[in-house]
Amino acid sequence: MNKPSEFRKLTYLTFRNIKLYFTDKMTFLVSLITPLILLVLFVTFLNSTYENSILSIIEGFNLDQKLIDAFTGGWLFSSVLATSCVTVAFCSGMMVIDKVNKTNIDFMVSPVKKSTLQLSYVLANLFSTLIIAFVLLFIGFIYLAFVGFYIAFVDFLLIIFSIIITSLFGTLLANIIWTFTRSQGVVSGVCTLVSALYGFICGAYMPIYTMGEGMQAFVSLLPGTYATVLFRQGFLNGVLSEMEKTLPSEMVEGVASGFDVKMSFFGHDVSTLGLILVITISTLVLLGIFVLINSIKRKTKQRHA
Asked: Is the pLDDT of residue 88 over 80?
């Protein structure tokens, strides 16, 4: 009988990890805390707050309620996706669970390469995050179809790219941390912390301009902020273009700046290409760190053996 190839082993392990995540109801629910918080906040008071902010910017001009609803809805789901692509990645990894359950010991004595096992964790983590993200995107599109849908094909591609690159960024960052973790308590603590804080520090819960100057400078150094602005542009570029048919360009510019559709880095405007480069380069740096860490650990174990 032919031995299974490393690719078949990788495929099996990846699907095994994805299945474990979706069958663990508690882990699955914890990973959805952030989008649920955002939805509750939006329903209770954020929607009216956003509407009032827009009306204060365009004071003296009338704007179709459909455009206002489309803008606030796009802002909501850009926030949901920007945070979920990272928070779900932190809560959907199976690496530490296998360590806690001692399952990793069985894998160590099985004919599976350590690199194959590590890659299966990363891929399962990434695919699980993408599944959740695309389900949320589908829900968001249904909502916008009712209140006002102004997303062009180019913006749709920008949203898809943002989901993929941000999910990969969150997955690599999470797996770097999980490499040094063996406690389920630490995992739960980190997941809770990330779910609670990430939305604030990436500008998803509130516009960046509402923060203090020190906090604004801090979040402008974080790659997650640039990913959030990319999501904003994907969801809101079309609405802003439609607003320009009714409002002066200065007012539309004020709405865009006030709601983080545009971003500046210490006074310098960052283009869409600049946003893409920041999050892409940051992801590549994390990939290099992850590979380097696992390479060092593998060589260390070989010397000790």
From this structure: yes
